[in-house]
Amino acid sequence: MNKRRIISGVLAGVMCATTVGVFSSCTGGSVGGAIHVAYAETGYGSAFIEQWKEEFEELNPEATVVLEGLPTMTAEVENRLRTGTMVPDVFIVLETGWQKMATSGWLEPLNDVYEATAYTDDSGKDVTIMEFMNPGMRDYGKMLDGNYYAIPWTDNANGIIYNKTLFEKKDWEVPETFDELVELCDTITADGEVAPFAILPGYGDYIAATWWAQYEGPTNYRRFFDYENPNGYLQEGRVEAINAMSELFFDPYSEDLFSYKKNQVPGVSEHTDAQRAFGLQQAAMIVEGAHLEHEGANFLAPDGEILFEYEMMPTPFLENAVKDANGNYRNIFASQAGDFMCIPKKANNVAGAKEFLKFINSKQGCESFTRSTNGAQRPFQYKASEVEGVNASGFMKSCQRIYESSEIVYHYSTSYMNWTNKLGKWPGVGIPYSDLFEGKWAWGSEEGVLKTDSQGNVVPQGVTVCQIMYDYVDESWWRIYESVV
Q1: For the segment 306-316, what is each residue's pLDDT rounded down to a tens digit?
Q2: Is it the case that residue 479 has pLDDT exceeding 90?
Q3: Which of 322, 344, 424, 432 could be a cystine partner for 217, CB 3.0 to 4.6 Å?
Q4: Which residue ranges make up each domain of the chain?
Q5: Alpha-carbon gap, residue 267 to 65, rounded angstroms
Q6: pLDDT value for 18
Q7: What's the average model confidence in pLDDT over 288-293?
Q8: SS3 for 260-323, per residue?
Q9: Per-residue DSSP letter, 328
Q10: What integer pLDDT is reported at residue 5 of this predicted model?
């Protein structure tokens, strides 16, 4: 049975209380009263939002922020909005289709929140929340009507995390290129003590998206998400990223009767399986994000003390990744940011909710989040490493170095064809990594016989997968396009 966290008193009683002051009562929807915030209890826990509540109420003593936390809150958002039941004043949840909610008329425009002051700079200029936000995320919450309905709230490094203690013990070097990563996996396998990786296939984009962006460069990578024509599905960067995942985790010559997977701990079907395997030191590396320190604490620090040192490495470069004018690989990181906050149109306290969002998206609010999470970043132009009062671990510092030294690109789309689920990243195949690791697209006429072209050359899985997606979209492109225009 799921247990809800109701903080600051009984929800029903507080939500219907009338308070005189900065915010209004829930009954009138004008200025005042309690502010009901429903949030997803995620990898960062609840400490950050409890701290937001404390600081906001200190600044606004007449306000009462009521927190409702639920691990599955994201899945409840659409049903609550559609039925009008248990509608809070603010949702803070994981990535889901908020655009559908906005077009259904369920969300309140947030233009005035974006235009609010985030902080005043040294010259005395007021910097708005929009200006404070990372440039690449400024259109995330925008719809075709020109209004903004959502604000992103998480943004951190993700990729390959390695057991630093084990690496130092074994004298293994942190790889800088993909070829070096492949060699390292061979070395770890030959050593025999641990598997190279613990990976949940669904987390494949934590590294594959960065390989794709490294290969294409930021402009081409972002162009794909415009969904202007089917050709994006054949981008070389997509093909090469999928090929890299296939080379790293699929063994067509496996002697295992039940699996073609390689370089990974078997039996990983949930993210907690991978975290447990990494914590038990059954794998030297794990594909994860900066939230691992909080989300995986039961496995990595069961008694409050870490079992071993671990850090995140910069994602090793593919051979043909883009380079700068000096011939050096460009540090490009593909963020998976997409978690959002919004205000329901039927919120009882819209005015109070907007004031709360203005606070938590100010510089003070962002730095409060960073302190409460021991160093995590938000998608705004400040450096988590420079926030005072942060007790960042060696792991979190490694995440900060990657984030702060990279060109960051994002995977959201402003295309209506994407919002209406007509097109996405993986049409016709679904998220491909689990099937990829088992060689679904590797075989020719029969399983065990690699697919070859007319010249007898083996056809990499990335080529086949991307061609399937292209054909799937190209075949019905104009029908899809006309259905949404």
Answers
A1: 999 999 999 99
A2: no
A3: 322
A4: 5-155+337-399, 157-336+410-485
A5: 43
A6: 33
A7: 95
A8: CECCECCCCCCHHHHHHHHHCCCEEEEEEECCHHHHCHHHHCCCCCCCCCEEEECCCECCCCCE
A9: P
A10: 40
